[in-house]
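Appendix B. One record, verbatim.
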Amino acid sequence: MGSRLKKDFSDKKELEKYSSAFTLSDMEIFIFPELFYPLILADIMSPQLWAWREDPWFADIDKKSFISKANRIKQYIIQNYVFNLDLSTWGLTSKTAEIARFSDFFDMDMLRQSNALFGYEGDKYYFDIDIRKHFGLDKYDSDIIPFWKTETIEAMTAFRYKENFTSGAGECVSLSALYAAAMFVVGRVPLEKIFLIATPLHSQNFIIEKDGLITNNRRIVTKNMWYNGTSLSEKARRAMENEKVTIVSHISGYIHTLFNEASIDPDSYKYFSIKLKEFLVTDLTNLIFINFLRFKSKYKNLFQFRCECSGKQRYISLEKMFEYEHTSKFNVSMEARESLVKEIEGDEFHLSPIQGKIMLNDIENIIVKHSGKSLEEIENEFIKTAGIVSESIIQEMFKDLKDFIYINPQIPDFKKNYITTPRLKITNENTRSQIIELINSHKENSELALLSLYVYRQMDIIEWLPFIKAAIERNPVCFTDLNGKSISEVYNILINLPEESIYDGCRLALPDEVWNFRRGDGIEKALVLADFLIHNNSTSSVAIVINGEKVHLSCKGEDFHFTSNKNLKKSISISGSGYRIE
């Protein structure tokens, strides 16, 4: 694939960054935002993603519209990957341990201001949900936090081998990266139009095509869907309504709310800001008002609807009409309302106006008549029509209505010191091999390219020290599960696992990936055993010699042999004093 690039890892920050390229925890990406986009490029380089193009599900996708393409990709992801945020998957760490890792080069007070697990509560929303209880952390000491590692497409797909899973899986950052990569590879959307948005507790993509599109975990949300008032749109809106955007990542670079330097192209970021703000605002129409009442259900009991049944005026409460929505293919919107009314039982209607309720018909006339006018003007007309409904309730409703139709996203300030970095000119015309070659050819002058090769685990090109450091120091699950067993018991368990890596070619899985998915190449199994030995006795010294098919691990006079298909050669020494790779 290319020649090896030697890199000096004597600097602690550099070593932590490149080691983090393998584990990609939420905190690591927060501290090293330059790691975010390499995950997308690693997925784009993956043969597993390019195999989607051959799936009958995507037949003739090139001929479909943008939204049709997005829906096809969405349905494929929904069918093949579930959302997973289980704390046991990648294990736990502690605030103390993470602070020790990063405090030499990152202001921990800044971390507490922006990271939910380190004390950031954001708006009232976070107090309401009790953040630690929400994620199942309340049963642990307050110092304990999850690793929450972000998965490559290989790890996501391999969940089908994990106990209690029948398909692939991934957490929200993994899913957003997969969506971005799939929209490029399968949907043929240019990377320049795809922006990744990270908040303290979530990750979404904003794709600038048509009116815009937001991916939310396994779902997609168009602008119309954003304002339809359903539970799906409510969940999708939550991050934008309650959280600050910490990182925006793009093929041109990134911008971080806490860092003064940004590598994203400023024109691209300005364009993103404009288009996102356009997406998050809409005009008040009758449809939007009905959707708002569906969204904020406490207000729908203020209204009634006047209709004609058999030539006579009849009246029905709006909340009753919304009830019938649940069992009907029709809804309360003006276009479908007549059909919905025909399905409602006759005894639900009143012969006279319902006392104390505002007539929806009159309100809809006001909205049409005052189209284009300010919310304040429309609010004043509402108050005149509200009858006995108090002015304070109308004012409260309009405050919530404004929040519904207008969100001002808390994105990083545009005023940054923009650094010019080499751009990777990856286009939709490129084949997979051309993209890999392009990234490889820029590894010496582009950190994005080099980090992408690390995230991709291209072990015949990258330096092994960061990988070994990550394997031994940040893979607690395999050791926890094997704790208490003898060395021979662990060796026998590993030998009997399928000789099958979840990664193709020269790429390697981490110990917890081997253990979670119960399979691995001989090199990967040897690292699981090394992880067990070091954690079982911190004074142990482990030597691993990899010579093509033969993998030999020795520790305290005991020898263990594995077989590899990775065609790699390496000598590794692991001890309490550090790592030596030759």
